[in-house]
Design goal:
By secondary structure, this protein is mainly beta. The protein has two helices and 28 strands. The protein is 8% helix and 26% strand. The strands form twelve sheets. Strands 20-21-16-23 form a four-stranded antiparallel beta sheet.
């Protein structure tokens, strides 16, 4: 009788212990003396620790948007970054449209940039089309020359999460799905301050002023001897954001010879992207350093142009174009900085299709209005 009671008691104890935690913690946790499961990492139930440990947690990251605390704390860690739902069977986030990543922690780019661009993080987005448009030599702490891009680096909480398309040359739009059309001068426009037209037969024709960019190079040697026998190159960016780099330009101490070298190199760029240019070089006792004036006189480069970029760093074996570079050029922490600046504002303007036609964004060709023709609708077919 005593043995039977003992066996029955043991059976009750075993049964009680087996039933003490729900579903025996589903094999994903341990059962405590308080009949509460302690789940293994990544397991829980209904999005909370404990329960029967039958469901998975999903990755946590900073919330895209949430209610701030009374102390102003925001962007706390949240499952799927509050931009997706958690599939508790496999622990994977199902992100809302426009978001992706293990924890829905980054934005996706619209249309994957349509195959005509790259999807970049905010911190990697560069400002200014070319280097010298944001490093103008106005401060001794900034370099006036160069070719490297500069990104925001503003320390924003989402700088490595928010993304946008950076379109390939010739493409534009949020999705990079629209072709750019060529830019040209509005031949009927009168430029304020110039009172001139650019078309034959209209008042002021023949008195136009070309844009002039002035490159000032300061050598650490007062006589610019460090430049002698060296080579450099120039990068030009078109209105379609195409970049072109000249052949190596050999430095010559004769101003006229150097001017001819520079002009020839610019006019040899592919596709006649610079169809004509005038270059003047001045050095010696009358000026500080070497002053290079580049006037954009061609029909393909009318109006405002992106600033030229001087490639002055050495580019050795395996690099193109192969140049020695301009040694000891003053571009940083010197009171006199080498710069590229627009010294003369041209009388021409620059608009897509010359503002005398509409851009067919499927083909990248201008559909000119009646009375106008040409790639940029810059040719009159009849006098008004």
């Amino acid at each position: 009788m005593t043995m039977n009671l003992l066996a029955a008691s043991l059976a009750l104890v075993v049964g009680y212990s087996q039933a003490s935690c729900p579903n025996s913690c589903s094999g994903h946790g341990t059962c405590g003396v308080d009949e509460v499961c302690t789940c293994y990492p990544g397991w829980g139930m209904n999005g909370a620790p404990g329960g029967d440990c039958s469901e998975r947690f999903c990755p946590f990251e900073l919330s895209w948007v949430d209610n701030p605390t009374k102390d102003g704390e925001r962007h706390r860690y949240a499952e799927c970054s509050d931009k997706g739902t958690c599939d508790r069977l496999n622990g994977n986030c199902v992100c809302f449209p426009g978001y992706e990543g293990k924890a829905c922690d980054r934005q996706s780019c619209p249309g994957d940039c349509s195959g005509h661009g790259t999807c970049e993080y905010m911190k990697d987005l560069e400002y200014g089309t070319v280097y010298n448009e944001y490093y103008d030599g106005s401060s001794v702490a900034l370099s006036g020359l160069g070719a490297g891009g500069k990104s925001f680096n503003m320390g924003l909480w989402d700088e490595d999460r928010a993304r946008a398309c950076v379109c390939d040359p010739g493409w534009t739009g949020l999705e990079c799905n629209k072709r750019m059309c060529p830019y040209g001068n509005d031949v009927m426009d009168v430029i304020p301050g110039f009172d001139e037209h650019s078309s034959i037969g209209l008042p002021g024709y023949g008195n136009e002023v070309a844009q002039v960019q002035t490159v000032t190079l300061y050598d650490a040697d007062l006589n610019n001897l460090n430049f002698d026998g060296k080579s450099f190159a120039i990068r030009f960016t078109s209105k379609l954001n195409e970049t072109f780099v000249t052949q190596p330009i050999m430095w010559d101490t004769d101003d006229d010879v150097l001017a001819e070298y520079i002009a020839t190199a610019l006019k040899k760029l592919p596709n006649k992207v610079i169809d004509d240019v005038d270059v003047n070089v001045e050095s010696g006792s009358n000026v500080a350093g070497v002053v290079i004036d580049v006037a954009f006189t061609g029909a393909a480069v009318q109006g405002k142009q992106h600033k030229l970029e001087i490639l002055q760093d050495p580019c050795d074996d395996g690099c193109s174009p192969r140049i020695t570079g301009l040694t000891n050029i003053r571009t940083f922490s010197d009171t006199t900085l080498s710069t590229v600046e627009i010294s003369t504002i041209g009388s021409h303007n620059s608009f897509e299709c010359g503002r005398r036609g509409k851009c067919d964004q499927k083909t990248g060709m201008c559909l000119c209005f009646s009375g106008f023709t040409g790639d940029t609708c810059n040719i009159l077919t009849a006098l008004k």
